[in-house]
Write a structure and sequence with these properties.
By secondary structure, the protein is an all-alpha fold. It is built from 22 helices and no strands.
């Protein structure tokens, strides 16, 4: 051991126990490798390469995304600044990040989603949609998509909404003659809309990371969210025409049909929740956090009126909310340290220099960025992608004079598509898990939905930014 101490002292001029040294740890790697004195740029480059290798290794070995970000960030900071700098960040950064007032919206909306799901409101809404369609297959598909968007607005959980629709919508769609892969994909696509329909947790995390108004993001997402629903509906109708000769309708009577009074209660409740979120934030009556609290309270009252409240209801809702909230906070902490490494490594500056010729062509730059995001969302959970990449992209977006609210909406559209795109479309897996429909059959259809929406909605947002920026400009 004494030989290790002596080697470390001679190379760094410091103590390996205290981390004190006369220069960044990156120089140590240079000296060990015998490459001589390196400049700051070379040290930053070697740190970036090492962190990328470690990041990819941990990703491929299936580590939790929070652990992956935390490990990569700690390693990168240590290489660049040594233990003293890393210690300073570890003492302050985790608390500073999770103590953000804006993040209080996350547990409130998750709690609201738990109350809605456990009260059986999703199934009741779909039964109502089924009755309103009066057996018409095309109308049923459109209503299913819009129901998914509505449930996304009141639940904020794409995976939960997709799984719920998989349980209650897919059997009814199949009774109307839908092929199982189309019925399952329709449920997954409808559920994925919660990534863009407020109160989207993804938009909350983006707003916190980019330090922009969450209320403006929620309002800006309204028109693009409607566009996504329209595109999904049109694609479904085209598929139905393709299969119209093979549609075989079977009996679809439901013995457990809710009463008219129950329908009235859930419709009123759903309307109040949407108004409290959209209307309250748009008119300035509520902040996004207050809107989440009001939505959770309304959901609890509805569950009470429907007779669903008991000890298990409360306990399980709180436990699930705690689990998801802690997971989100762990990702935020890991991503904050990873973001610190990105700043220290000067990676944004290097990327700006590399993209220099494209800075005068914002549209081409955006297309390239969106294609990269499209592939990232295929493999990595959306919240983690936002937290990893947005700190690096912010200087680039600001240098190119790109509106951050508009970019956030475009990003949420791409994330919505990532939920149904192979190989890791989480909403598709959720539907496949509850319906037992083979994943490969679902992905063949969901990929079509994803590509069409990417071209149409993404293209419209790039060509007409006002689709996302107009409503926020009219807010009080």
């Amino acid at each position: 051991m004494k030989y290790f101490f002596e080697i470390y002292r001679r190379l760094t001029g410091g103590n390996p126990l205290t981390g004190d040294q006369s220069f960044g740890t990156g120089v140590l790697f240079a000296k060990i490798l015998g490459i001589g004195e390196w400049g700051e740029d070379m040290i930053e480059n070697i740190a970036i390469i090492i962190v990328i290798i470690v990041f990819l290794f941990l990703l491929l070995t299936g580590q939790y995304i929070s652990s992956l970000l935390l490990t990569s960030g700690i390693l990168g900071i240590y290489i660049l600044g040594g233990m003293s700098l890393l210690s300073g960040f570890l003492q302050s950064e985790p608390y500073t990040r999770v103590a953000s007032y804006a993040l209080t919206t996350v547990p409130l909306y998750i709690l609201m989603a738990q109350f809605i799901m456990k009260a059986g409101i999703v199934k009741d809404f779909y039964n109502l949609v089924f009755k309103l369609s009066k057996g018409r297959t095309g109308l049923l598909s459109v209503l299913t998509v819009f129901l998914g968007g509505f449930l996304g607005a009141v639940s904020g959980s794409g995976t939960a909404t997709a799984a719920a629709l998989g349980q209650v919508a897919v059997p009814e769609l199949k009774k109307k003659g839908y092929p199982d892969h189309l019925a399952g994909t329709l449920a997954a696509a409808a559920g994925s809309l919660s990534a863009i329909i407020p109160p989207s947790v993804l938009l909350i995390i983006y707003g916190v990371t980019a330090q922009i108004s969450i209320g403006q993001l929620f309002v800006a997402a309204f028109i693009p969210g409607i566009l996504m629903m329209v595109v999904f509906s049109v694609v479904t109708i085209v598929y139905l025409r393709k299969y119209q000769d093979d549609l075989t309708v079977t009996d679809s009577e439901d013995d457990d049909d809710p009463s008219v009074g129950r329908y009235i209660i859930i419709v009123i409740a759903g309307t109040l929740i949407v108004l409290s979120i959209f209307g309250g934030i748009y008119t300035g009556i509520f902040t996004p956090t207050e809107a989440g609290a009001v939505g959770a309270f309304i959901s609890l009252i509805v569950a009470l009126v429907l007779g669903k409240i008991n000890k298990d209801f409360i306990v399980s809702s709180l436990i699930e909310t705690t689990k998801v909230s802690v997971m989100a906070m762990a990702i935020v902490i890991g991503a904050s340290l990873f973001g610190r490494f990105i700043s220290l490594s000067m990676l944004p500056r290097k990327v700006i220099d590399m993209l220099g010729p494209l800075m005068d062509s914002p549209i081409l730059l955006l297309v390239i960025i969106m294609l990269i995001y499209f592939f990232l969302f295929m493999f990595i959970e959306g919240m983690a992608v936002i937290l990893m990449t947005v700190p690096m992209l912010l200087p680039i977006l600001q240098a190119a004079s790109i509106d951050l609210v508009w970019f956030g909406i475009l990003l949420s559209v791409i994330c919505t598509l990532g939920l149904i795109t192979p190989p890791v479309g989480i909403s598709v897996y959720a539907v496949g898990g509850v319906t037992k429909i083979p994943i490969e059959k679902l992905f063949r259809t969901s990929l079509v939905y994803s590509i069409v929406a990417f071209i149409v909605v993404g293209g419209l947002l790039i060509a007409f930014p006002e689709l996302a920026t107009w409503l926020p400009q009219t807010m009080k």
